[in-house]
Design a protein that fits this description.
Arc Repressor Mutant, subunit A; six-stranded mixed beta sheet; alpha/beta; D-Maltodextrin-Binding Protein, domain 2
């Protein structure tokens, strides 16, 4: 189709963008919020599109709004077209001398292991733009446009290829200032006298104080009073500040152990059945940026695992 006739055949492009958002979210208000427009502005653009095409695109009722059969047909076509344009634009941008890579990880992994090492990667890969998604609730990598992510588990997740980084090890950690000169390792009676810090995780694989206690031959009884956190970096900060004893993950708290900001009050280490893995969507096309980051992460993980526990 010639360019001039294509321009005449297409509806206003702004109305197509508004229609895609409204159809996906099933709400003019939510679509307006996403696009930075008012609900009335979205409604006007949909009315303009319906008038241009000559069909009703949404049915409205007390329960809300839904696409009509004709609207659903148009929605599928518009979504495919706009997605194709976005993918092509992303590819062309990446070919202009810079490469973009998105990596996702939990808050704890991002804060304590990944972030301290990223400057080294950036120093030798200055033409790669990194985007870090730090969240304890990572979803589908393809949907969220994440190239790779770090997950904790058995390595079996649908739709991704998993490569082991290192295992899971957990042990108590405490600030020396809370110990007030007590000689290490502490006796069980001394240990029980210290306040506990606990991370409340929605992930059942994340071990807690009860798991640690049950793994010990003596099965020490633990204090009932605990300070609880829903954010692991905050728990570690509280431990460093001398607020109590937390459970430290190997590779997360190693630097704190080396500079003696934290110490291990008892020697027991709990080895978990799971490991940290680098996961990538199955079928993803290899790119220079993702390959460089992947190889670098695996090498850094190898060095971490080879280092002795401080």
């Amino acid at each position: 189709m010639a360019r001039q006739s294509l321009r005449r055949a297409l509806p206003p492009l702004n109305s197509l963008v508004a229609f895609e958002a409204a159809g996906r979210l099933e709400s003019f208000t939510a679509a307006g919020r996403e696009l930075g427009l008012t609900q009335a502005a979205i409604s006007r653009q949909i009315q303009q599109l319906e008038a241009d095409i000559g069909v009703l695109l949404f049915s409205r009722s007390r329960r809300g709004m839904r696409l009509t059969p004709e609207g659903d047909i148009l929605y599928r076509s518009v979504t495919a077209g706009l997605t194709s344009i976005a993918d092509t634009t992303t590819t062309l941008r990446q070919q202009q001398g810079r490469r973009s890579v998105t990596i996702g990880a939990t808050l704890g992994f991002s804060t304590f292991w990944l972030m301290p090492r990223l400057p080294l990667f950036r120093s030798v890969n200055q033409n790669i733009d990194l985007r870090l998604v730090a969240s304890d609730a990572l979803g589908d990598l393809a949907v969220e446009r994440i190239d790779m992510a770090v997950r904790y588990g058995d390595g079996h997740w649908p739709g991704v290829h998993a490569t082991r980084l290192f295992g899971g090890e957990m042990f108590p950690i405490v600030s020396p200032k809370l110990l007030k000169g007590r000689k290490l390792p502490l006796s069980l009676d001394e240990f029980r006298a210290l306040p506990l810090l606990e991370y409340e995780s929605a992930d059942p694989r994340w071990l807690n104080w009860d798991d640690w206690s049950h793994s010990q031959p003596e099965r020490p009884k633990l204090p009932a009073a605990r300070i609880r956190f829903n954010n692991y970096p905050l728990l570690v900060q509280a431990a460093v500040a001398g607020e109590g004893v937390g459970l430290g993950w190997r590779y997360f708290v190693d630097d704190y152990l080396r500079d003696r900001s934290l110490v291990r009050p008892v020697e027991e280490v709990l080895m978990t059945d799971f490991s940290f893995h680098l996961v990538e969507p199955i079928g993803a096309r290899p790119r220079t940026g993702t390959t460089l980051l992947r190889n670098w992460l695996l090498e850094q993980a190898r060095l971490s695992e080879a280092a002795p526990l401080p």
